[in-house]
């Protein structure tokens, strides 16, 4: 198979002409053409290798042969819809159920995290009979109409907040309204949800769901204070609502210690609805909603069928099963714990050297490096973060930024990321920050 | 690869326990387990063969080797997201553009017809600055929140019509408010849209889009009166709205004479936004929105990025390209014309024999057989249609019903359906209708 059909300039010209420009390229000033990938490595049209630190979708590694094999074996046999009985969908649901608390036992398979989150909203609405949703500030839950409505990251830009949507402050221990020095962060941030619910009730409205990522990603790779979710769940359930955990970015062992990020919140916490997506099919469009029998029954009781044409087809489920197998066989959760831990430690060492590093945070292979202009006032070093990403690209390491000020460099690599990769990344960041400092000093001394 | 993991009873038990019951099975009284398929044939766990007359998704035939080959070759190479430049997405857009009028030239790739229709709504809204949508009665445009809002087939059951949604009568020449004897069906039905727009304006509201399938499917395999769409487009555009053609079920040559069903409406008609889905990836989750540069530019101008994680990835596009190749190489559009024409002719012959057949309609391999209790009053023979479908299943032919009264037997088989298949289907329907008549007479004479 030819790796390239058109020269890069032509690809770029066709892309500009034929593809909606709302779909943006990485490094849009000088985009990269990737023609081949394996594991955590990408290769451009000239055979140059890039280390991929951000493709969380290619969870078990780009082009893993076990996934390709499972897909093509099932494609040769059958890819009908789920109106016919088939073993893959039930086997896959059974395998996923084994990773979850018993309470989460009814599955709906769909094609994207967005489809999953939309269905989660419908399930919550149908079960509770309520309309209102509480979300965290800066959250992004997907590209669909209903999800833009509940994504402050999007609706703020469009300038339209729906009256049924209520935004709670992001429980960010570094930059939030309560910080790491607060004696009880979980309680303090949960109290705000409680008072927000009171305000909603005063308006004569009722809470359908609290909807949040188990680790806010676009929000800036945030680790929620432990205990926060169970307190919030208590308040939300008392108001007749449900707790929806969006694990589209965070599930499948990425956090290292657990299979799901919500489990970081403690043994006593379990969401009522959980959505999963990106890493689930290693790039194949596959996502899912799991909920309780009570909520599923309420959804069935309205008598309106839910049919998803491609969702849960035998090929998607074969791929999903193969992903679970590889995670286990290659101990990728263990690898995330070890390599992520090592990378975090290396980044912490850099923090001791470079004052621009305000915070190093994260779990497993879900890490954030927050750059600040000043450690006291924590003003975001947005431009510098952008420079680091661009300079890292020259070193052929692919990174990007997140957070409301785009000053958090995120690490969400394929789970096969190695110790050597971690060391290479830390070393290059060290050099680049050193260079930035030098340039900065030069500029300063010229003034 | 083992064809079965669990015995059928266990599959069924697990399905009931683990999968949301809102996702219904075909033949729920006695569901079929399918383990293998090829072309237009399905095989159950005992190796019994079924003729598939309804899987329009498996457009070029179940498990076509060219599609499997294209998918696995690309899966071995790369499956990154569209933030990196890649040739497949631009080549695929270019190939699709060649099937469309020049005006439709900017593509957005997504994972399902529902995602496509949701994006179409957003594009229309952003471009026009208006909110209101006119839809056809009994329409179904997808399972997402925003699409249930514009699908009378769904929102009627949930008992909630949004104030920005306006339902126009289905231009059904057999059962609609104007029928085949009307001198100008297109004008009569379009006039209703015109007056509906006036009503909307009187309320101080404005039209964003007229949103309709090019051939209403769930509505009962309806063929719109030729000329209808260009008149409607004229009125809708005069009101500042756009025309969205939902071709999720009808595109890719199914109608035989043309590649797109909207082209049946005449040379002078072109929608402003067109959505495609089901057959596009032959079962792989792949769908698309195409629109004009003006509408795409308005969407870009809001400054809010549209990113679809899996949409347009190299594997999806490789599969899409392979589907286009097979349609051409095997002349499947020509086959749809020939075999569909023959099947329609055979069904017309049955209509001459069986008074229960009220109408035979359709184009290419998109056909409907409408059963009525009485040819005069056209009362729907819902129960009899259900009996025919069940009896056909015993003959190992898979069919189902559509239409508001579920009395329209639909034919939307894989496009490799053969003359022999058509003859077998017509012969069996003939026998079953004969039997039904006999049973009916027996019951009658007993009374």
UniProtKB/TrEMBL annotation, chains A, B:
<dbReference type="InterPro" id="IPR005814">
    <property type="entry name" value="Aminotrans_3"/>
</dbReference>
<dbReference type="GO" id="GO:0005739">
    <property type="term" value="C:mitochondrion"/>
</dbReference>
<dbReference type="GO" id="GO:0008483">
    <property type="term" value="F:transaminase activity"/>
</dbReference>
<keyword id="KW-0456">Lyase</keyword>
<dbReference type="InterPro" id="IPR049704">
    <property type="entry name" value="Aminotrans_3_PPA_site"/>
</dbReference>
<keyword id="KW-0663">Pyridoxal phosphate</keyword>
<dbReference type="InterPro" id="IPR015424">
    <property type="entry name" value="PyrdxlP-dep_Trfase"/>
</dbReference>
<dbReference type="Pfam" id="PF00202">
    <property type="entry name" value="Aminotran_3"/>
</dbReference>
<comment type="similarity">
    <text>Belongs to the class-III pyridoxal-phosphate-dependent aminotransferase family.</text>
</comment>
<dbReference type="GO" id="GO:0030170">
    <property type="term" value="F:pyridoxal phosphate binding"/>
</dbReference>
<dbReference type="InterPro" id="IPR015421">
    <property type="entry name" value="PyrdxlP-dep_Trfase_major"/>
</dbReference>
<dbReference type="InterPro" id="IPR015422">
    <property type="entry name" value="PyrdxlP-dep_Trfase_small"/>
</dbReference>
<protein>
    <submittedName>
        <fullName>5-phosphohydroxy-L-lysine phospho-lyase</fullName>
    </submittedName>
</protein>
<dbReference type="GO" id="GO:0016829">
    <property type="term" value="F:lyase activity"/>
</dbReference>
